Amino acid sequence: MDGIHPAPYTSRFVEAGGLRLHYLDYGTAGGAPMLCVHGGAAHAHWFDFAAAGFNANYHVRALDQRGHGDSAWAEPPYSYERYASDLAEVIEKLDLRDFVLIGHSMGGMVALVYAAAHPGRVGKLIVVDSTLHMTEDRIAAMREVGTRQGSSYATREEFVARYRLRPAGTTAAPEIIRHLAQHSGRQLGDGSWRHKFDRNVYATREGVDGLPYWNRIGIPALLVKGDRSQRITPQVFAEVKARCPQVELAEVPHSDHHVTLDNPSGFVHAVKAFLAKQSQI
Question: Which of 37, 58, 113, 179 has its CA 20 to 30 A from that of 264?
Fold first, then answer.
């Protein structure tokens, strides 16, 4: 590992969208607010290691979106607008203003949709390795995966031992993968263990073009990509830049799609550099 350890946290709950949503509160109370939003089939613990690098100066929180982690599941379909509406309610109830909003993968799209619809509420937007426009083939493949029954494991130990990140590309240390695995399973009534993830999230996946939302982003914004990931290509960045001239790009070395896990210290360094620059403007 790179010297970063998971941050201590308190589990909390908030009502939003008619559901009981779970979030992790890493502290530090009184610090500048930072809210983190995970990707599809993930959960708030994707930010445990990054939070350790921020919580000396920021009051960091990470949300489990509906259908993920320890938040309630909902009747499908799951949509970006519904996730963003949940996010708006959470932000109101936590009274977050002029805050840093970080979203990874699907969570980056959710953060983008929210920020575009609520100008003046977010202070700085950070979108991490998100696919801004999915092909029909990829959407169809995700829906097909979502219709299959997920794997079942006889014991927690088996679940942890066989846990793998999806998508598979990662450079994360084994200790980080194991840490995530320990927070990713739920025991059912029959004693078996399954992922804390409603597969309808994939089965009802929608296709949304994220690029037009950038036309409505007037705040400081950062796109973060893993150096081994192809989701944010030079062409994609150029298209975003044409719509949102102030956006910047940071590439985190030794990382693929799961940037906050693959290189937590590199991710923290990139984000802190962006935030420090903005504070000097």
Answer: 113
pLDDT at 215 over 70: yes
Q: What is the DSSP letter of 50?
A: H
Burial 43-55, CB ≥16 within 10 A → b, else e: bbbbbbbbbbbbb
Structural domain includes residue 151? yes
> What secondary structure letter does DSSP report for 153?
B
Residue 123 sits in a domain whose CATH number is: 3.40.50.1820
State the amino acid at position 130 in one-letter form. S
At residue 3 the predicted structure's pLDDT band, cuts being 50, 70 and 90, is: low
Q: Is residue 204 part of a domain?
A: yes
Contact 88, 114 (CB under 8 A): yes
- Residue 132 belongs to a domain: yes
pTM of the complete model beyond 0.70: yes
Find the DSSP H helices in the chain. Answer: 48-54, 80-94, 106-117, 136-147, 156-162, 174-182, 200-203, 234-243, 259-262, 264-280
Please indicate, yes or no, if residue 3 is contained in any of the structural domains. no
Q: What angle do CA 56, 220, 240 make, to 5 degrees?
A: 125
Strand partners for 153: 193
Closest CA to 262 of 184, 173, 162: 173
User: How many structural domains compose the chain?
Assistant: 1
Q: Which domain holds residue 258?
A: 10-280
